[in-house]
Design goal:
heterotetramer, A alpha/beta (about 160), B alpha+beta (about 375), C mainly alpha (about 350), D alpha+beta (about 170), A: about 160 residues, Beta Polymerase, domain 2, five-stranded mixed beta sheet, two-stranded parallel sheet, elongated, D: about 170 residues, alpha+beta, Alpha-Beta Plaits, two-stranded antiparallel sheet
Chain lengths: ~160, ~375, ~350, ~170
């Protein structure tokens, strides 16, 4: 199914909650707000015509104003792709977790938490994954400054 | 129950066993915290990050062109495939079309590297299960591929060969003949592996029916590549979303059929890799036959700094270990604003618990080996 | 020898005060121990060399090449290295047990050499319960292994020790049963009697006496592999699973003891197999041609080569499969061997 | 029946495996006795970085492209009154307008990607076949190639030396 049709389907179902659609981008994408993400994700997963059973990638990007979460979806049943973007404020980055829908989100969300400080609500085990548990700061944010030492070791 | 380092309520028969980060069978520095009852694993929690090299952060500070050596080091066993994935992503982002000869050479390199990588996977799997000799045989045959790479790229493991928009060098004269020699030499060796190990009764007992990964679980966990195909899902990006000219080649996608046990067991995952060796040989034969004789491999390479237009892209290729995806955000400068690597091993490790609980420690080793993980890619 | 001891007694006041027979006995024991120790060290040393060389060639390599011609002195270099290494005892280990364990394992395998019939005259002591002695003394090793595994205070070592205990206890049963089938023929437990019962050429060897004993030999050999923790039954060590099992925490000298005991045990299993089934020091033809020692060693080393060959061919079993093989395959078959042989003798 | 078939299968596959390994016992080894014999390295081999400082024009192209910043270069303009210096015949007698006073390669950082050698305009920076340069101290891996000293520094040193006796006496 074409991304624009997927967008129409979403628009029909969720109305105003679905934000703008970028058809020009290399990966056409739709922006939604944090509140409607769980319902939208569940719909994308469960709807027969969509059936996005695989979350290919969950990336976070630190833009100057906001943090952006990018959910790249793919359907192994219907062979189509779609991208959902969620903007999160930098001051209190809180997003509902999609771990209950796509199991792979578990570790991807932990990674986004680890490196960007995005807090995923209802995540079963939101701990640091790549960095040590007592690491301070979120390294992939643009304003991150590398500390001089960690537990007495030079960095 | 979450397995953490402290505050675990154990039953009186149970104990916490720390497997790794230094353990011969964790294929690097993976750490598994096991809760065991005798030999039986009741719970397992993978802990990663011991090989975290801040690759994504580094890449934000180098240009698109000079990020290739970093990409090489992701899955250090399949450097060519990593480079190919990265180069294709950036080319798509910047709108670069590469000449046909470059496409063919890239496919040849990627498939050779796939064979080399699967040989390591098969060999180390045998090593995990105690059969040392097969490992030496696979290393012997891999050495021939490495020699081919060495001649064309100058490196044995970290090639820096496939660049954005082209290749570092053209093939050396006579290289094609050497590659053909290898393709003559290699297929009979697969029979040898089969005789020595694949159909070995002890191996079948150890691997069949063990660590079954149900296809739905595999998809949900984002497990890809041979591990997913071992579960019976015929998903191969080379076939379903062809890139770099893969649509021109005729090959099959082997999937697990549960010949020795259940679909999705360790034996199936192993056997899918073994059959992919044959398919790769098939692709290589066609690619070498059709390879355009003439052509400048560097004609499409950016002469000065590469500045892709603003935008983002997620693109993925079929690595020996599964879908390797790159998510790149460009802000119009020569350096990537964000480069995220979606690694196949990362998701495979996260699915270990689904497979390992209820099996024995020895089976856990078999399951880990059958997933064929490379920690360089998990931790990045 | 006798003159030497007499001279010693003459020159030593203490020796004069003890009975002469006792002095002779002590001298005999000391000499035997010394000789056996040298033989055993050479065996395990050359055993490791053979293992590495065969492994190397089977894997399209060469194996050790640098110490001496074709690396023949490699085992000496390794031995010197191990003996000079720092003696590390883990801080939380049970020191006493940790120190005793390798000695127990080593002395158990050392003691088994007492009843090995090298030739018609060359045997330290032809006990009338020789084979029983072997069976019992080889079980002592498992105590040492458990001691080592427990004392290391390492969970992996403990796993190795528990596996070893379960494995060795289970596999003693098929070994004992297949030995009984031979004893049905000889009616004696003495090693020399067993060998002499096989004199007179190839067809007199027990392995070829009847089809059941032929099977019995293979049962014995497979169970023997398990008894000495060789692939495919090397679970107590299982490098890729248990790191190195019960000897994970051992290094230097103490590790060397474990290591030597392993190779010494290997040869014991081969030697007993030769004695029981392959005619011991008897030749292929009724006329021996070559000295008994040569025949015995030839057969023993051939079996050892097969052990090495198997090791570099096969993967490893899992614990439950190991038990399955012992109790559900080897045990019923060894009963079959006993009954079959008994019937064969009767008819 | 199944039981017996499985036993038979096990025995048979063991024998098949043993046939493979015994066959290899008499196959010549594929390995090389390394320190005594060595493989020949191919032409494009990327070994240790080596700079032929006599041809270096101090353009800094290599240090700019280096993804790991392992090359440190300091160069300064030659004075007008100085005699002009040129690179060797092979690299085309290019004028060396800059005096390279520091050219350090930290091989412990180097990732052997070869970008720098592709950039070098005079081909003075090359990767030579040498691959045996392990050392006991990481600091020994820093290779300094610069031989020329800045004239001021030289003169400073001279004046220091000259000044010393005066200072000590005074």
């Amino acid at each position: 199914m074409e991304p624009s049709k997927i967008y129409e389907l979403l628009k029909k179902r969720f109305g105003e909650k679905v934000g703008e659609f970028d058809a020009e981008a290399i990966d056409p994408c739709v922006t939604v707000d944090t509140g409607s993400l769980p319902d939208l994700a569940r719909f994308l997963f469960e709807d027969e015509t969509l059936a996005f059973d695989s979350l290919m990638c969950l990336s976070a990007v630190d833009y100057p104003e906001t943090l952006l979460l990018v959910y790249s979806l793919h359907s192994l049943k219907n062979f189509h792709k779609f991208t959902v973007k969620v903007e999160v404020s930098k001051d209190s980055p809180r997003v509902p977790s999609v771990e209950s829908i796509w199991k792979t989100a578990n570790w991807h969300e932990r990674e986004a938490f680890d490196l960007f400080g995005v807090e995923f609500q209802d995540h079963p085990d939101l701990t640091r994954i790549l960095l040590p548990e007592d690491w301070e700061g979120y390294p992939l944010r643009k304003d991150y400054e590398t500390p001089d030492e960690y537990r007495g070791m030079d960095i | 129950m979450k397995l953490q380092d402290d505050n675990i309520d154990l039953k009186s028969d149970e104990m916490i066993l720390n497997m790794g980060p230094q353990h011969p069978s964790t294929h690097g520095v993976l750490r598994l915290i096991l809760r065991t009852d005798g030999e039986v694993v009741n719970d397992v929690r993978p802990v990663i990050g011991y090989l975290h090299r801040c690759m994504e952060k580094h890449c934000e500070n180098v240009t698109y062109i000079t990020a290739v050596p970093y990409v090489d080091r992701l899955d250090y066993i399949a450097g060519m495939n990593n480079e190919l994935g990265y180069a294709l992503t950036v080319e798509k982002l910047a709108g670069i079309e590469v000449p046909e000869r470059v496409q063919y050479i890239r496919v040849i390199m990627a498939e050779l590297n796939r064979i080399a990588s699967h040989l390591i996977a098969i060999g180390t799997y045998a090593l995990d299960l105690g059969a040392v000799t097969l490992f030496l045989y696979t290393m012997r045959d891999r050495e021939r591929i490495i020699d081919l790479f060495e001649e064309v790229a100058g490196g044995r493991l970290l090639f820096n060969y496939i660049r954005v928009g082209g290749l570092a060098h053209d093939l050396t004269p006579g290289w094609v003949d050497k590659a053909n020699d290898f393709l003559e030499y290699f297929p009979p060796k697969i029979t040898e592996y089969n005789d020595l190990f694949t159909y070995q009764k002890i191996f079948i007992e150890r691997a069949a029916n063990v660590g079954v990964l149900h296809p739905d679980v595999a998809v949900s966990y984002g497990v890809t590549g041979p591990n997913l195909r071992g579960s019976g899902v015929a998903w191969d990006i080379r076939k379903d979303e062809p890139y770099s000219g893969y649509e021109k080649f005729d090959f099959e996608v082997p999937i697990g059929r549960g010949e020795m046990g259940t679909v999705g067991d360790c034996w199936d995952r192993y056997y899918v890799r073994l059959r992919e060796l044959e398919e790769s040989v098939k692709i290589l034969r066609q690619a070498i036959d059709q390879l355009p004789r003439e052509g400048d491999v560097q004609s499409a390479m950016p002469t000065k700094t590469l500045k892709p237009p603003k935008g983002d892209i997620y693109y993925r290729v079929e690595n020996p270990r599964g879908d390797l995806g790159f998510y790149i955000v460009s802000d119009g400068t020569p350096k990537p604003y964000r480069l995220k690597v979606r690694s196949p091993c990362f998701t495979a490790v996260s699915a270990i618990r689904e497979m390992a609980v209820g099996w024995m420690i020895a089976d856990l080793v078999a399951i880990l080996g059958s997933l064929d993980i490379v920690l360089g890619e998990v931790d990045r | 020898m006798k003159e030497f001891i007499d001279g010693l007694i003459a020159s030593n006041a203490f020796l004069q005060s003890v009975p002469v027979d006792l002095v002779y006995l002590a001298a005999m024991v000391t000499a035997t121990v010394a000789v056996l120790l040298v033989v055993l060290t050479l065996f395990s040393g050359l055993g490791t060399y053979a293992e590495r060389k065969v492994a190397g060639h089977m894997q399209d390599r060469l194996g050790p090449m640098r110490v001496g011609p074709h690396g023949i002195l490699q085992f000496l270099a390794d031995g010197i290295k191990l003996f000079l290494k720092e003696d590390i005892i883990p801080a939380l280990a049970d020191r006493k047990l940790f120190i005793i364990a390798p000695v127990v394992v080593f002395s158990a395998s050392f003691a088994s050499y007492v009843v090995v019939p090298w030739s018609d005259t060359l045997i330290v002591s032809d006990l009338n319960i020789g084979i029983l002695y072997i069976l019992s003394i080889s079980s002592v090793a498992v105590i040492g292994i458990i001691m080592g595994g427990w004392a290391s205070n390492n969970k992996w070592s403990l796993y190795g020790a528990m596996r070893a205990a379960a494995q060795i206890v289970s596999y003693e049963v098929p070994i004992a049963l297949s030995i009984i089938a031979v004893i049905l023929y000889t009616g004696s437990l003495s090693m020399q009697d067993i060998v002499e019962a096989q004199a007179g050429g190839l067809h007199k060897w027990f392995i070829f006496r009847n089809p059941f004993l032929f099977l019995g030999f293979f049962l014995y050999f497979i169970a023997g592999l398990a008894e000495v923790n060789r692939v495919p039954f090397d679970l107590p060590e299982a490098e890729s699973e248990l790191v190195s099992g019960y000897n994970t925490e051992y290094s230097g000298m103490r590790f060397a003891f474990f290591f030597m005991a392993e190779y010494a045990n290997m040869f014991i299993v081969c030697a007993i197999g030769t004695t029981l089934f392959l005619g011991g020091w008897n030749g292929i033809l009724p006329d021996p041609i070559l000295p008994g020692v040569v025949w015995f060693m030839g057969k023993g080393l051939f079996l050892m080569f097969i052990m090495i060959w198997l090791r570099w061919t096969l993967p490893r079993l899992r614990v439950d499969q190991l038990m399955y093989v012992s109790w559900k395959v080897l045990l019923p078959l060894s009963f079959l061997v006993i009954f079959g042989s008994a019937l064969w003798i009767l008819l | 029946m199944n039981y017996l078939r499985e036993i038979g299968q096990a025995v048979w596959t063991v024998l098949v495996g043993m046939k493979v390994t015994i066959g290899h016992l008499f196959v010549p080894a594929v390995t090389l006795q390394y320190p005594d014999v060595k493989w020949t390295t191919p032409e494009r081999w990327r070994g240790r970085l080596h700079n032929n400082i006599d041809d270096c024009i101090g353009c800094q192209a290599c240090s700019r492209i280096c993804p790991v910043s392992c090359i440190t270069i300091k160069a300064e303009k030659r004075g007008k009154d100085e005699e002009p210096v040129f690179t060797s015949e092979e690299s085309g007698k290019k004028p060396r307008k800059l005096r390279v006073t520091q050219y350090d390669i930290d091989l412990s950082l180097c990732c052997f990607c070869g970008f720098c050698t592709e950039q070098c305009p005079t081909e003075c920076l090359r990767m030579i076949p040498d691959y045996e340069f392990s050392v006991y101290d990481k600091k020994e891996l820093v290779c300094s190639y610069a031989v020329e000293k800045s004239p001021e520094k030289i003169s400073e040193k001279i004046s220091e030396k000259e000044g010393e006796p005066e200072g000590s006496s005074g």
